[in-house]
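W.,

You were right to be curious about this one. When I first looked at the sequence I had no strong expectations either way, so I just let the prediction run and decided to look at it fresh. Below is the sequence, 123 residues in total, followed by the output.
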Amino acid sequence: MSTTTTSTALDVVSAYHAAWTSGDLDSAIALVADDVVVHAPGEDVIGKEAYREYLGGFLQIMTGHTPLAAFGDDQQAVLFYFPHTPVTQSAPASERFVVSDGKIKESHLVFDRLSYAPPEEAH
């Protein structure tokens, strides 16, 4: 008797998000397809290695996160959360993921880039 286990998109995305938000970039990237396309504010990040570099850069300033909502089905998942950095703990971020064959194939990442910039000095 054979047993087949399938993961929903939300299962894959939840494991990915738990890994990267805890600083485990290798485990997170293992759940990303080689040809991933991430539509981020201001740029598209194409390919697993380019995304590793992009996400790794953000991990250098991230100090934690507050999860707010997660939902999905067999092929798509959406996360809504507050990434914490030295300059903000309440700037929202949202991602919509497409998952195929247990790997993240595409992401639409939405956040306000200005919220993560250092505050301007008072004049």
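Here's what jumped out at me. Residues 70 and 79 are 5 Å apart (CA to CA). And, maybe more interesting for your project: The chain has a mean pLDDT of 90.

Coffee later to discuss?

I.
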